[in-house]
Amino acid sequence: MSSLEIRPTTAADLPSITEIYEHAVRFGTATFELIPPDLPEMTRRFRALMDSGFPYLVAALDGRVAGYAYASPYRPRPAYRFTVENSVYLQPAVHRRGIGLQLLQRLIEECEPRGYRQMIAVIGDSANAGSIGVHRKCGFEMIGTHPNVGFKFGRWLDTVMMQRALGEGARTLPQDEANQR
How far is the C-alpha of 137 from the C-alpha of 156, rounded, in Å? Predict the structure, then answer.
C-alpha cells in the first residue's frame, strides 16, 4: 500500500516539480506555456511565491514527488489582493488516483487562514474533464469559458474559469479594510 504525504515544498523538490511541469508543457493543455521553463526559472518562480507568503505544496507518494500545487496572485493590481489563482500538476502516472483532489483541498485549507477570500481556477482546455471535476468536488462553481483564447498543438483551446469562496468570502470586510473604518 502506498503512502501519500502532502507537505510544504522545499528547494530539494524543485527538480521533480520541473520534470512534472515540463511534461505538462510538452504534452498537455493544462498550461498554455509552449517552452518548458528550466530549473533556474522554476526556482525563481518558487522563491517569488514563497517570498510573498503563498502556499506551495507537494504530494509525495512513497517519498517521491508525485504532484504539486500552489496559490499565486490572481492579478497584480492591489484590489485583487484577497484573490488567489490555484495551480495543480501531477505526474501522468498518478492521474485519477485522488492526489490532485487532496492537493487542492489542502491548498484551500492553507489559503483560508492567510486571509484570502476567493480562489480562481483558470483551467486550460474545456475538454479537461478531470480538472473540472476535481474543482467541482472542492466547491468551485463554473463562472465562464473563454473560447479559443489559446493556440497549442495546432488547435484552438478554451480556458474554463471556476471560482470558490474562501473563509468568509465576500460576507464580511477583509481585516485590513475593517481596521480602517
Answer: 27
The C-alpha cell at 26 is 510538452
Name residues of the chain where pLDDT drops below 50. Answer: 181
Number of domains in the chain: 1
Q: Is the pTM of this model over 0.85?
A: yes
Question: What is the per-residue pLDDT for 177?
Answer: 60
Closest CA to 31 of 163, 161, 150, 164: 150
8 Å CB contact between 55 and 70: yes
The CATH number for 111's domain is: 3.40.630.30
User: Which pLDDT does position 176 carry in this prediction?
Assistant: 62
User: CA 146 to CA 128: how far, in whole Å?
Assistant: 14
Question: What does DSSP assign to residue 172?
Answer: S
Which amino acid belongs to residue 49? L
